[in-house]
Predict the structure.
Amino acid sequence: MSRPVAHRHLVQVPARPAAYAFEPATTALLVIDMQRDFLEPGGFGESLGNDVSQLRRTIDPLRRVLAAARALGLTVVHTREGHLPDLSDCPPAKRQRGAPSRRIGDPGPYGRILIRGEYGHDIVDELAPVPGEPVIDKPGKGAFYATELDGLLGERSITSLLVTGVTTEVCVHTTVREANDRGYECLVLADCVGSYFPQFHTVGLEMIAAQGGIFGWVADSTDLLAALGTATP
Ligand code: TIU
């Protein structure tokens, strides 16, 4: 049986490995972990020895996508990686691994690193959530692990996800894999995700679209914005 209302609202985006089609009413923009601790100089990301400028290039294109999504009334969901002040939700292995100059929970220039409620744990000013936009606090890399995200999307009948945020091969990849296994169709916006390692970013995106779109689709935000420009709110 045909569904005329749904068809009228279908948006098609040129993507890899093939065009990605979605209905705005059943689609959410997911903004993953655009937090000061990952993006600002002196935060946790930099303490791991990383070059934060590799992540900061995502801010401007993401601002434009966020503005378009809000104008169209799309569901927008933000996530933040972090832990309770007593670290009871942080596996010791996660805290002790590697040799960062500062560990999760240690004091840093933006408060205790990756601890909920601290300045550094919150989202960068440029992409601050507006009232009504859910913010999911997650203890892991994946946004579905130990969070209310799946239930929240289900309540809103969301089946498609426009995925943005950091980092491409860590929290974005883990979340896309989790989402794909749960039946969500994910479009990853290549210029709105970033990695401290350019080669991981490139290969991470290739891995998503390979094998006929084994985890999802990949497109540039300019192609999404062009397609949304012709969409009916
Ligand atoms: N959000 C996210 O990707 N967390 C990380 O720890 N990423 C790294 O690349 N380290």
User: Anything to note?
Assistant: The radius of gyration is 17 Å. Residues 33, 38, 81, 141, 166-167, 170-171, 196 surround tricarbonodiimidic diamide (CB under 6 Å). The first strand starts at residue 11 and ends at 13.
